[in-house]
Design goal:
Radius of gyration: 20 Å
Structural class: alpha+beta
InterPro entries: Nitroreductase, Nitroreductase-like, Nitroreductase/BluB
Keywords: Flavoprotein, FMN, Oxidoreductase
Shape: globular
Helix content: 25-40%
Strand order of the largest sheet: 3-4-8-7
Pfam family, one: Nitroreductase
Bound molecules: 3-iodo-tyrosine
Largest sheet: 4 strands, antiparallel
Protein name: Nitroreductase family protein
Strand content: 15-25%
């Protein structure tokens, strides 16, 4: 039984972690890194259905992320309906067409060449689920008064990272898609004024034959400075 107590009038609950030996920690952390390193962004999806329970679980996993003042300032919209997916694809492709043809710089387009992206977004109709992550800029209480959320982008970014890890752990793949501008999603999904679209994440199985760019990840020396 976990012990509980009051601290300054607020409820606290005992927190314990299993104790690993240094050897165990080394092998666990290495195994976790090697497993995460097998996650890839995939752009070719299968239309094979995925049980809703899996999506429910990955959303709950994502929602364990730390957040400013524990406000959990996120809403996940899960789109399954073929009709809604079609509308999202049409609206996203319209914006992306503009982006690829006039809004993005030459340098940006060149940087994207190895990834093979363009304005066509068929995955928005093929993937069995589209998860649209919304950030909640503020809350409205019962009286309609604005209540603050804190570090909203940081919080929703953390939740999105855990979401991608949970998707990977379930044996599925995802694409972090950022159609720009994204406000068409608020309109199509009829979201309230306090919510802003953050990421559009198709989720499903990879297509039968899937190739991904042969990317290399930065070395420890490139990403870390020890003082
Ligand atoms: N949002 C566009 C373009 C795009 C931009 C970056 I930075 C990427 O890493 C990938 C794509 C699109 O989704 O195609």
């Amino acid at each position: 039984m976990k012990r509980s107590k009051q601290i300054q009038g607020h409820p606290y609950i005992e927190y314990t972690k299993p104790h690993y030996s240094e050897e165990e920690m080394k092998s666990r952390s290495q195994a976790f890194y090697e497993w995460l390193d097998t996650r890839r962004t995939v752009r070719d999806f299968s239309d094979k259905p995925v049980p809703k329970e899996v999506i429910d679980n990955i959303l709950l996993a994502s929602s364990t992320a730390p957040s400013g003042a524990h406000k959990q300032p996120w809403t996940f919209c899960v789109v399954q309906s073929a009709e809604m997916k079609k509308q999202i694809r049409e609206a996203a492709e319209k914006e992306e067409y503009e982006s690829y043809h006039s809004r993005m710089s030459e340098e940006w387009l060149k940087d994207l060449q190895p990834l093979g992206t363009d304005w066509h977004k068929p995955f928005l109709e093929i993937a069995p689920y589209l998860i649209i992550v919304f950030k909640r800029a503020y809350e409205l209480d019962e009286k309609g008064e604005k209540k603050n959320n804190y570090y909203v982008s940081e919080s929703v970014g953390l939740a999105s990272g855990l979401l991608l890890a949970a998707i990977h752990q379930a044996g599925l793949v995802a694409l972090t898609h950022t159609p720009s501008p994204m406000n068409f999603l608020s309109k199509l999904l009829n979201r309230p004024e306090n919510e802003r679209p953050f990421l559009l994440i198709p989720v499903g199985y990879p297509a039968e034959e899937t190739f991904v760019p042969d990317l290399k990840r930065k070395s420890l020396e490139e990403i870390a400075v020890y003082y």
